[in-house]
User: What shape does this take?
Amino acid sequence: MRTLLKNIKGLVGAFEEVPRDVAGLEMSNFPILYNAWLAIEDGVIVDFGSMDDFPGILDWSGLNIVDAEGRWVLPAWCDSHTHTVYAHNRSEEFLMRLEGMTYQEIAERGGGILNSAKALQAMSEDELFDDALKRVHAAIATGVGAMEIKSGYGLTLDAERKMLRVIKRLKEAVPIPIKATFLGCHAVPAEFEDAAAYTKHVVEEMLPTFARDGLIDYVDAFCEKGYFGVDETRALLIASNALGIKGKVHVNQFNEIGGINLCINQKALSVDHLEVCGAEVIQRLVEDYKGIEKGKGHPTYPVALPGCSHFLGIPFAPGRALIDAGLPLALATDHNPGSAPSGDMTMVVRLASLKMNLLPREAIAAATLNGAAAMELSHEVGAIGRGHRANLILSHPMEGLQHMAYRFTDAVVDKVFVNGEIWEG
Ligand code: NIG
Ligand code: FE
Assistant: This one.
């Protein structure tokens, strides 16, 4: 299967050598090749260049030609933080919020994550899989070409295993890369005395079992007042690091309790949320990033989730300040039934410009290459590079990339290519 896209208005994120991530000023300089062509063979990008130097077509056999006149080609979105496997929606909690309760008050009364867990425990693995598959397909249709999915709504060994098995089946059933995160410490179930007691169970019983069964790529904790403290999060990260499994951790959503510092010390792959994120922790992230040589190891990536801020009406992560400080910001949806019921990365990119003042290229870089880096996938997806998977977005005609946020409800994504083929979903 061979495809040639020609007359592309702008080929976004095209690199001769794709870097691991882009940071600070590199983000506003995310490369664009104007008036370009792109060749795909067997699901992989094989070449690209300017139409001015187009070498012509030597072999027409089986060649599918797409005239992209006036349209942009972007790497498909890389959504590095989702809770796409869940039992039911929680729209009744949304109504309660409209009636005046806060997200935290609802959670304190047994709603929130505990509500999701109760419903999930009652559902069969097959039902959960069928629902989640529809959501993953819907995400791909909106331009997602790689994603991470967390457990965390199980809260018992059996139910967490059920979630992780569903994620494993999704990995096999869909043609995009998926990473599985064991969100072991998400909420404390009623049967346990406190967060420390539940964490002990997670660390001693669940983690080794799931790791042995090859069900997890990363671990996660909700490091937050009223959920899991720095001590519990540390215990989980030390245990997972000993198994060679890195952390991707929920921190600083409502309070700064020292989670970012801990995660950097424990070499977590990412710190996610960051709605409450002052100058001191930003500086700590900068020191960490500067200490990691490109091509060697990985920093702790800051991941912002603007859909959650938008939906809960809480502050947005300081995306502008994080980039100005020289960091490789990533953006993700946080798709979940409580705090961000949407898996639409285009919306996230729009919010990043509208609410965090990100330039179009910064927002796109954060939602593609840096998202891929926050899943250790930037050698494969998140950029236009020779040998990279042809997971791409072909946009509707747009004068400039700023139209994504300027015309903030117009459709952006026309066609999605997955492994070089148009996604028919
Ligand atoms: O990322 N903050 C923790 N967990 C999820 C949402 C949990 C829920 O409300 O279901 C989040 O926002
Ligand atoms: Fe989350």
User: Anything to note?
Assistant: The mean pLDDT is 97. Residues 206 and 251 are 22 Å apart (CA to CA).
